[in-house]
Amino acid sequence: MDLDKKYGLATLRVWGLILNFMMNFLTLFGAANYLRGDTDATVMIVGIIGTIICITVLSKPQN
Amino acid sequence: MEKNTQKSDSLGNHPYDFPLAAKIPQEVLDKEVEKLEGLKTAPLHKKLLGYAKMGGPGFMGAAITLGAGTLTASMLSGAEFGYKTLWIYWVAMGLSLFMMAAMARFTSFGKEPFIRTQNRYHGRIIGSFLTAFIGLGAVAVIFNSGQYSLGTNILESMTPLIGFEFPRQYNWVVYMGITTWLTLSYGKGSKGTRLVENFMKICIGIMILCFGATLILVGIDWNQFFKGVFVPWLPSGSAGIDLFIASSAAAVGVADWMFFHYSGLARGWGKKHESLQRSDFSMGLFIPFVLINFLVVAVFAQTLYGEGTIPQTAAELSKALEPLLGADAAMLVFYIGFLSVPISSSVGLGILSGLAFHEAFGWKMDTSSWRWKLTVLLPQFGFLAVWYPNPVWLVIIIGAFLSLTNNVVGWSVYLLLNDKRALGDKRSSSRFWNTGVLIQITLLNMVAILYVLNRLGLWI
Question: Any CB–CB contact under 8 A between B424 and chain A?
Fold first, then answer.
């Protein structure tokens, strides 16, 4: 996967950062709902797993 | 002596012109590179000592980071949670080192100063506006009020211990005199820059000695200390998440990254200085930051933890120590150490302000110009804090901008670190390094998200 290839407006690396931001949001939004007792931990867990995947993928240096 | 024009990179200097380093004679830079070469094969203790002597920007970074805000947070942490949060300091600063290493790479191998690289590849909104104007300039001007407030309070409290009264309504003049002189000395050739750097080193030394002496006096619970350093603990629920994210992301931010980069450029550091830079931010920033915070937390854990109502400002917190420390001399030692905190930060913030506004507006840095003097002295308006605190609306606006933009600047650093156009073959080739930078960015993202969730009333 070439992270530095442009897809639409930006490179895959930039889209990855945006996706990571969204996953970080899910983590905290899910944590807030879970700690308030409104929902179970599913959203938070999806956010955490998404964040880990994003970081792992984005850590690949440029070829 | 021949002046350094920085057009030649034969001995590891930059191929581009950075005006603050232009006044450093080429011979001085050449000698420094020769010394560095000699240190490569020296025994470890000689190498460390040599690097510590030659370093400087890392210590300056520590002086800015260890300001009124950070120290107040540490005092409160010790008074509220005892030794339990000590682990956060080394973890947070440890994570920050990945970003500092990125800035060192740009200092050594960047084709131009970082904000200009941002302008070129990410646009002026990210470079000149978010990074320079908000992340550096606004921070320097607004946050200096806190330093003035703390510094003048300390002077007012400590002078009766040596036999005279010096209220803050008058002592701010002394505070302004010292910080203005030092701020204006920076960039005036290698001597001016080294004077300021050495002053910062001395301030950090004073903090360590004075807080260390205070801790010896109040004693230390070694069992709780080691537990606090190595066993992660957080208050339960949202308070724990808030504390961890805020502490880990706030240890070092945009201002510290850029200050380290630009003060390295001001020293004329180039290709051969990357290892010096790495040891500089380890010995000058990481160790002092962690050690001083450990000492302050331990002093307050040992004295005010579990004592009922806890004062909320640094001045009140240190005042609360007076009856517990007993002898005037002991309190005086504490105050001397504590006074080094705002003074060194004010000097650093002044220099940061000059760098920021020159980069924001694309002005050429010239320390003899009125424009330079005016911009480095802009944070001195903080003296008004002696009478009036910062307007709440201004603090909220800057806080909001900072929370929401710190992460975007972090994204920019990561993208440029991985960009062949910016660093050529010296771009990051390490998964480990990129992972560290991305974890730091994730924490900064979370600070921004928490800010929004709090504003929308969606956080707990």
Answer: no
Domain limits of chain A? Answer: 15-58
Provide, as residue numbers in chain A, all residues whose Cβ is less than 8 Å from the Cβ of B407: 21
CA B231 to chain centre: 26
Q: Is A60 on the interface with B (CB under 8 A)?
A: yes
Alpha-carbon gap, residue B393 to B385, rounded angstroms: 15
Tokens in use for B401?
């901008």
**Per-residue three-class SS string for B116-175:** HHHHHHHCCHHHHHHHHHHHHHHHHHHHHHHHHHHHHHHHHHHHHHHCCCCCHHHHHHHH
**Contact call for residues B213 and B299 (beta carbons, < 8 A):** no
Paired tokens of B437: 């930078």
Chain B residues lying within 8 Å of A4, measured CB to CB = 418
**Interchain CB distance below 8 Å, B458 and A32:** yes
Q: Which residue of A has its CA nearest to B408?
A: A17
ipTM tops the 0.95 cut: yes
Concatenating the DSSP letter of every residue in B352-412 gives HHHHHHHHHHTPPP-TTSHHHHHHHHGGGGGGGGGTSPPPHHHHHHHHHHHHHHHHHHHHH
Exposed, middle or buried: residue B128 (CB in 10 Å: 0-12, 13-18, 19+)? buried
- Tens place of pLDDT per residue across chain B (460 aa): 444 444 444 445 555 667 777 777 778 878 888 888 788 788 888 888 888 888 888 888 888 888 887 888 888 888 888 999 899 899 888 988 999 999 999 999 998 999 999 999 999 999 999 999 998 999 899 889 888 988 998 899 889 888 888 999 999 999 999 999 999 998 877 788 888 888 988 999 999 998 898 898 888 999 999 999 999 888 877 777 777 776 766 677 888 899 999 989 988 888 888 888 888 888 889 999 999 999 999 999 998 888 877 776 777 777 777 777 776 778 888 889 889 989 999 999 999 999 999 999 999 888 889 999 999 999 999 999 888 876 667 666 776 777 777 889 999 999 999 999 999 999 999 999 999 999 999 988 988 888 788 777 777 6
| B356 vs B375: CA distance, rounded Å | 9
Which chain B positions have a beta carbon within 8 Å of A17's beta carbon? 411, 414-415, 441
Alpha carbon of A32: minimum distance to chain B alpha carbons (Å): 6
Rounded Cα gap, residues B140 and B440, in angstroms: 22
Residue B366 touches chain A, beta carbons under 8 Å: no
Inspect the interface and report whether the beta carbons of B415 and A13 lie closer than 8 Å: yes
